[in-house]
Amino acid sequence: MFSVVFSLALLAFSVTGLPVEVHNSPITLPMTRTLAFSNVTDLLRHDEARLAAFGEYSTHGRRDADTPPYPKVALSHINLENTFSGYTVEVLIGDPRTTYHLIVDSASAITWIGADTPYVSSSGEDTEERVAVNYRYGSFEGTISEDDIFITEGVTVRGMRFGVASTARGVAADGVLGIGPTSSGLEALLDSPEQTIPSITDRLVEQGTIRRSIVGIFFQPITVDKVNHGELTFGGTNPSLYDHSIEYIDMTTTSPSSLFWGIDQRITYGATTPTIAILDYTAGIVDCGTTFIYLAIGAYDRYRDATGGVVNPANGLLQISPQQFHRLRDLQFHIGRNIYKLIPNAQIWPRSLNERIEGGADEIYLVVKALESPRAGFNFINGYVFLQRFYTAFDGDKRKVGFCPKHVHLQRIQLIWICQSIRSIVSQTQSSIRI
Fold first, then answer.
1. Cα 106 to the center of its chain, rounded Å
2. Other C-beta atoms within 10 Å of 411: how many?
3. Residues 131-143: b if buried by 16+ CB within 10 A, e if exposed
4. Predicted local distance difference test score (pLDDT) of residue 134
5. What is the pLDDT of residues 309-336, one digit of tens each?
6. 287 tagged catalytic
7. 364 touches 319 (CB < 8 A)
8. Which residues 6+ apart lie within 8 Å of 428 measured at CB?
9. DSSP 8-state code for residue 190
10. Do the beta carbons of residue 15 and residue 415 sit within 8 Å?
11. Cα–Cα distance, 319 to 57 (Å, whole number)
12. Choosing from 42, 202, 264, 287, which is the catalytic residue?
């Protein structure tokens, strides 16, 4: 038995290339995503609820005065078990080490647990600081605890402050791993709303595990109805997953987009003249927790007119004919000095998944939707359907966001995920042997 365990462990560590001890090196975690929504209504309600939560911030970077920092009444709480649940990572917390599956959220700096698996640890300390976050599609309320989080073999975030939920609604996981900028955690501490909680990236820098507060993200494009894999890197990026070099741009200074991973961009339609101006240069955010691309009403109308799309009453998405698809042109995102193109095929929902959105097998739907309630300083969201096409880096130190076309090393990502599972089995087996 020991030889089998040892062989599996050796295989896991050698194939992934992850060292047992990490000293100022980037740390990579595999991510998985399951299409856990039952219909398009749930999927769109999830996005709309998230957009509503973003909209609660005023142009001064604070929630509007009449908006509570946490839900005193039910506010469009949607059960994510039947919606699009996002990417999750597996971490171990406390003593005994307990496994938690956490949704990766780029729009929040708060990490919390307790929505499903309870938190029981002899090494943790309850600080009794009250904390609450309202995602609109769900929420949690509880207190802050301090404990060690084991994020991958040999890497421990020591004394991490995270929320432990006493109540949680609408989150189809054990909790959330927040990778947003620290400013996105404002007002989460109910007794001291002006203070923020260091994100897990901040803590890794503070304890010297990584040198820089950078998070690199790789998403596998959704093309089939199965588990999709991705990769999350702390402290740097993974050059094997993208072409050339990442081009960074300064985060926007326009509030409220500046609270999140906000950028300035403009959008045009068509790679050759004459191009059509879709969105003038303005501020918005990049968010992996939002499914579609959302544009302010005027920009959405111009895109609809340019493509000839018609809103499908069954799912609310723009639908085009096969002839219109053949005439579809590139959608160009002008960010910094670069242009990031969504070719026609990248602008449509995967037809193999049409049944999931109440569409016909051969029908064609676009992935751009209207931002129904745009606010000054918040005019677009580049959601998952944009991010899956580019390797993305969030630099908290320099307040920059970077993009680069990527290699799609799907087999490598799947292999890392398999090895992560093997390491988990090995860890559990060794724990059983010690017991």
1. 5
2. 9
3. bbbbbbbbbbbbb
4. 80
5. 999 998 889 999 999 999 999 999 999 9
6. yes
7. yes
8. none
9. T
10. yes
11. 32
12. 287
